[in-house]
Amino acid sequence: MTYLEASEAQIARPEFAKPMLVLVVVWLFAIVLLGRAGVFHTAPSDPPALTLLAMLLPPLLFLFAMRLSWFRTHVLSINPIWLNGMQGLRILGAGFLFVAAYGHLPVIFAFFAGWGDVLVAFLAPLVVVKLAANRAFLASPRYLAFHIIGLLDFVGAVLSGLVSRGTIPFVAEPQSTAALASLPLLLIPCFAVPLWICLHIAALAQRREFMKSQRGG
Q: Within 10 A of 95 (CB to CB), how many other CB atoms are there?
């Protein structure tokens, strides 16, 4: 079964999809338990090290796993329409704007993180439509730009959060981001964000594979 045939046939091959679903559920459950235990709470003067670790460790492990041929083969067989459509769930980031409106998050952070997610969520269905019409859209510069925007959104969110809380000394009056360390909001930076980053990595790997196949090797 070729890469494109596997992608058209199903979301992912069952022998890969089932264990990955179990892994994601266990991951989510672990984050909930850690959140309930208050693990992600830090003093205002300290950097949110555990939150950043929860955000960055899964993508790093995913990048390592992509070096394994069997794992990479299964990732490349995932339906790219599904991979990109999942970015539409970034509309959840709009919740930052509502929480900030009630004074529980810094406005600077909410602006970058919230509107960045809204933009990606708006673009995701357009990318899906393009892919459904023509799978060659994978090689398009617009497809690459979509994923670059999606990843830069996370960079902007992290930097604005660190600036807002005074970890990066740029504002005169730091504001608390404690709400991000409490349920249910912590599920976005500690679970959803690293999952979306992994999806970006998978989508970009598929793009490289598609372009390689178009060049005949």
A: 17
